[in-house]
Amino acid sequence: MTGVSCASAGAGPGKSAGPAGRGWATAGPASIDPRARETVEHIVRAVRDGAEARIRTLLADFAAVADMAALLYLHERLCPPLPGH
User: Fold this and answer.
1) C-alpha–C-alpha distance, residues 30 and 4, integer Å
2) Rounded-to-integer distance, Cα 5 and Cα 57, Å
3) In which region does residue 28 sit, left (phi positive, over 0), alpha (psi from -120 to 50) or beta (all else)?
4) CA-CA distance, 33 to 22, in Å (whole number)?
5) What's the Cα-to-Cα distance from 53 to each of 19, 32, 56, 75, rounded to whole Å?
6) Using one digit for the tens of pLDDT, what is the confidence trace for 13-71?
7) Most buried residue, 15, 16, 42, 43, by most Cβ within 10 Å?
8) What pLDDT score does 66 carry?
9) If 0-12 CB within 10 Å is exposed, 13-18 middle and 19+ buried, where does residue 78 land?
10) CB of 79 within 8 A of CB of 20?
């Protein structure tokens, strides 16, 4: 698996506040299915814990309920914006 840099990712106007990938976020775009939002938070926790098998299972669950907004939210949660951006 190749690593992907999140250096170019940044939270723009209207994005949820706070560092991505840290803690449990209850915010997010209102248009995201609640099941997708909850799965995103579980994925973030599994990534932080390094639980590869759980990540694979959660990604399969996520694919069943996610749309583009949910995918972008997952990216935002996993790739924190750089300071000053």
Assistant:
1) 27
2) 23
3) left
4) 21
5) 25, 25, 5, 19
6) 343 434 444 444 545 667 899 999 999 999 999 999 999 999 999 999 999 999 999 99
7) 43
8) 95
9) middle
10) yes
Q: Say how far apart CA 22 and CA 31 lie, in whole Å.
A: 22
Helices (H), 1-85: 34-49, 52-65, 68-78
Q: What's the predicted TM-score (pTM) here?
A: 0.66
Residue position matching structure tokens 């939270």:
11
Residue count of the chain, please give it: 85
> What is the pLDDT at residue 27?
55
